[in-house]
Amino acid sequence: MSDPSILVFESHGRIVEGRIQATSVLDAMNVARFGAEAIGFIKTHAGVNLLLDFTQVDYLSSAVLTELLRIHETIKTVNGSLRLCGMNPDIQKVFEITNLNKVFTLYGSRKDAVAKYERSLDILAQEDAWENISKES
Amino acid sequence: MNQNAREQEAATVGGATVKPFFDKKFSSSLDAMGQVLHEALQALVDRDWIEQGSMFYARLCLEEALVNAVTHGNACDPSRAVRLTMTEENDACLICVYDEGPGFAPETLPAPEDSGMGGRGVVLIQHCMEEVRYNSAARRLEMKMRRKPFCMGENDHE
């Protein structure tokens, strides 16, 4: 019997939510599987706007941070984007201590994250449009 | 390590011959590491070194130190062992992780750049633990913690 998935993917408009499963403890033992599932999905979904949801994650190790950077690099190669949400205060603090809160966009609760992500994509699209207009003139 | 050397080790580390309340050795695999990590955290809870609020950070530091010993220190070589000891020294708990590799100097680690890999775990340990030292000759990482919620930073209050 194969291990259950760590990530479950669900589309919400332009955003794909990757929900990390209940009681997931992302540690040295399963981090490779987490990374493989995420990267496997990204490579088959060019241009994906991925929102990783940590709501059900109680703990993560620093190996997960390295894996998230790998996921981030991969998603850039398919012209996608990556944002994170739903982290508990301890996990947020880990991102602050390691300055990764400056690398990743961290949304608060999952409830607002999808809407904020959509809005952010709208703003980026508008900026691109203005840039193209100013180049043409 | 024979008995005399072990006592010498204890005297050197503690400043007095204090026996560790936790002393386990395991071969360099993540599975074996996971079991020892679980037992070590339980030992810290049993002796009131950590409580619910600090469990996350204690686990983070211990796991980081043990994973570093397994993967970097011992290069995941199952013939090489990792040893974890925890010793009470007055109001501090001294945690030591020994590997059997060639040794390294933490100051030679590059600062964890935003896009860099590795080195982050050391930053986390240094942030959470009161003192962190790597004794390259003894291939021993020493971390010291006190009996209070740690890793609170600017929010440190009773």
Describe the structure.
The complex is a heterodimer of chains A (137) and B (158). In chain A, the strands form two sheets. A five-stranded mixed beta sheet of chain A has the order 1-2-4-6-7, with helices on both faces. In chain A, strands 3-5 form a two-stranded parallel ribbon. The mean pLDDT of chain A is 91. Chain A has four helices and seven strands. In chain A, α1 (31-43) packs parallel to α2 (62-77). The termini of chain A are far apart. In chain A, a hairpin with a 2-residue loop joins β1 (7-12) and β2 (15-20). The longest helix of chain A has 27 residues, at 110-136. Chain A has one domain: Transcription Regulator spoIIAA (2-Layer Sandwich), CATH 3.30.750.24. Chain A has 137 residues and is α/β, with parallel strands linked by helices. The longest helix of chain B has 22 residues, at 52-73. Chain B has four helices and five strands. Chain B has a five-stranded antiparallel beta sheet with strand order 1-2-3-5-4, with helices on one face. By secondary structure, chain B is α+β, with helices and mostly antiparallel strands. In chain B, β4 and β5 (140-146) form a beta hairpin. Chain B has one domain (3-146): Heat Shock Protein 90. Residues 111-117 and 153-158 of chain B have low confidence and may be disordered. At the A-B interface, α2 and α3 of A face α2, α3 and α4 of B.
Short description:
The complex is a heterodimer of chains A (137) and B (158). Chain A has 137 residues and is an alpha/beta fold.
